[in-house]
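User: Show me sequence and structure for the first protein, then do the same for the second.

Assistant: Starting with the first protein.
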Amino acid sequence: MKYEEAMELSQVKKAGLHRRLYEWTLHWAHTPYGAFALFALAFCESSFFPIPPDVLLMALAFSIPKKSFKYAAICSAGSVLGGCFGYFIGYQFFEYLGLPILNFYGITDKFDFVKEEYNANAFIAVAIAGFTPIPYKVFTIAAGVCKINIWTFIIASAVSRSGRFFIIAALTYVFGPKIKDFIDKYFNIISIAFVILLVVGFFIIKLLT
């Protein structure tokens, strides 16, 4: 088998695995354990799991709209705690766990970019991490490798992750299932706009103090 064919087959297998994990994630919304699964998924996605918790958060919020914000809080708590676990992986076990995780997902190149961002401004880098399409696990592991201040990491993670999940919860609560296609198509644009506002606000506060 040629190298190109082997790589193509590998990508197909990964795509198939990703789809099965996606469907497995969504099935928890139809069980009594949806909230627990959401917390666990948010925790694991922050360090190694490929499926973002947004998909289960939306499914649960669609099923019981009045609990949308409760689910957002559960998702936020799991994500921040999972981020601390990712930080620990980067801090203590990067060569044994962190690097293999990055290599598996093919995001090692993004890791170098994130390290440069941490050197520039750790708080903004983590805050941006909660919204950008770059997998959050890259930022959590890199934070540990760079040994940024743990409280800076936790506070910035809490702000950004909560912001992301509560925006989804609010849109779901107000508009219901009909907002799903809009979120799927435009949420990255919404999140980038939020990040821009966050960064502008940060610098305004810095200039006034």
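Switching to the second protein now.
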Amino acid sequence: MLVIIKRMIRDWTIFLLFCLFVVLFLFAEEIRNNSIFNRIPSSFFNVNTIFLSIILEAIPFILLGVFVSAIIQSFVSENTIQKLLPRNAYLAIFPAALLGIIFPICECAIIPVIRRLIKKGMPSHVGVVFMLSAPIINPVVYASTYFAFKSTPYIANARMLVGFISSIVIGLIIFRFFKGENILKDRIDGHRHPHHHSEGNKFFETLYHASDELFDTGKYLFIGAFLASLFQAFFDRNALLSLGTNTALAPGVMMGFAYVLSVCSSADAFVASSFGSTFTEGALLAFLVFGPMIDIKNTLMLFAYFKKKLVVTLLLVTPVTVYITVLIFQMIFL
């Protein structure tokens, strides 16, 4: 009972904070012109604007993700998952890395889908590969990257290739350390609806699961978006510009920048292209590959749904793998 009360307090606090941000967004000018509030630095209003822009950008993809997750729960059986995947643990990694071509899901929505698939019987390392590659290897992201880099269209192809290779390598490492291990947290869902509908009514079952996923996932999106907006509003970007032409340091700098900005993979190419005159192509590629794999908002979701050991491993292995892959790629091709 105490756990349920704590969850309710946390959920309502997040909801009220979101309402406060909406009010500030709608009435920012009136508040600024009020003599009581005119001493508040403009940076705080920028936090509000950036926060809402991240939320509005991510919400459509979150909705897509929770409905895909709910459909999997209602319509996809464990036997189906087993039949679709190759029995060989290593061979199963390669089709998993290409599933994003069929399921264009960005990093804002992929985590509830992966959690559901793993619960349905997908091997943990295969789920991790799908989670890391899908936000990069999908037609929506490819198209946005191609149009953002019209003068250098090969960047779109490079993004797909480096993302594919990196996810494969990370998947092999996860398989080595977590073979046969349950990587999901045992969660107590205090707001879970009682399911009075009949077992055969798949439509209502899907709606119930989707509403639960949205409520559960949304609060972590809000916290992550708020932290990302704080970094964007107060971090001095000019401090990074002096490092932009260093072929060894620039990729690492832009990976850190991608983590902080937490821009949706469907739109991050346009952010990356704005740094084209300052940073090397390798650095831009690192931004485009690492950001969709790990950022602030999905780090919080990972800690909420997966065991700490796996999340810490991903936080250590992913940046190292992407950084090395980008360095090798730029030495050979760029």
